[in-house]
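Recall that a protein's primary structure is simply its ordered list of amino acids. Everything else, from secondary elements to tertiary packing, is in principle encoded there. The following example makes that idea concrete.
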Amino acid sequence: MERHELMRLLAGDDAVSKAALAALAGGGEYVVLDGGSRLSDSRAGTFALRVRCMRRKGAENPGWERAVELLRERAQPIRIGYITAPDRSWIYTVFLTEDGGELVACAGVRRLDGEPQEERAQTPP
């Protein structure tokens, strides 16, 4: 999938999609996996476990509860993609329809291994 196509799909009005779009527009790395045969509702359980794990670790994870909800409601094959912010502080997961034509959900997680490089340099020891 071309960058501009993914950017078009992220042009929604929710905060997580806007943040993922900004990361992508700012030069963030991305990958969209080939269409899978797994149904979205069967993957929802796996992602619900990840949400609980992220919460236990104290990670910021906007959009994940809503994404799990949307995946459970939809019993259709999906494609999954990942966007890494240019400063590597956030990773966004995008869930697309099998043909890649529509965004099903978008969720993010702030990396636990530290702050962005710019902030790290300014933080006193």
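Helices lie at 3-9, 15-25, 40-57, 64-73, 117-122. The two ends are 43 Å apart (CA to CA).
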